[in-house]
Amino acid sequence: MFLVFMATASAQTNSTAKDIQISIVPGSRSASNAKFYDPSPANVSIGSSVTWTNNDNTYHTVTSGIGPDSASVASLFDSGYLSPSQTFMFSFSKSGTFDYFCFIHPFMKGQIIVSQ
């Protein structure tokens, strides 16, 4: 019975969150890294704050858009350079799917899904 309860609690963690922490994972500077942002995609509700923490040992950015050549690059948010252990927070005021990437390492891509 305890295992059933744990499975139910685990399933609930995939629902839309109010505020969320996202890790820029160690080793993200390498294109062969299995994951760059954790979690990604991240599901949040309108009004949520998302905080990214650079857990890698080099500089990164959190920049809205699909890549450095997109017309909408940094039109919503841009962290600037984040040194190791530094954080960046952004609050989402409208629903939608928001792509982001690292300007220094453009292969690093993430996504935020904001719902009502």
Account of the 3D structure:
With 116 residues, the protein is mainly beta. The chain has one domain (18-115): Cupredoxins -  blue copper proteins (Immunoglobulin-like). Helix content is 9%, strand content 32%. It is built from 1 helix and 8 strands. It has one helix spanning 2-12, and strands at residues 20-24, 37-38, 42-45, 49-54, 63-64, 87-91, 96-101, 109-115. It has a 4-stranded mixed beta sheet with strand order 2-1-4-6, with no helix packed on it. The termini are far apart. Mean pLDDT is 88; it is low at 1-14.
Structure summary:
This protein is mainly beta and 116 residues long. Helix content is 9%, strand content 32%.
Measure the end-to-end span.
Answer: 34 Å
Strand order of the largest sheet: 2-1-4-6
Mean pLDDT: 88
- Residues in helix, %: under 10%
The fraction of residues in strands falls at 25-35%
Give the CATH topology. Immunoglobulin-like
Taking the sheet with the most strands, its summary is:
4 strands, mixed
Shape: globular
Count of the separate structural domains: 1
Contiguous low-pLDDT stretches (5 residues minimum) are 1-14
> Secondary-structure element sequence?
HEEEEEEEE
Gyration radius, rounded: 15 Å
Q: Helix- and strand-based class?
A: mainly beta
Count of strand segments: 8
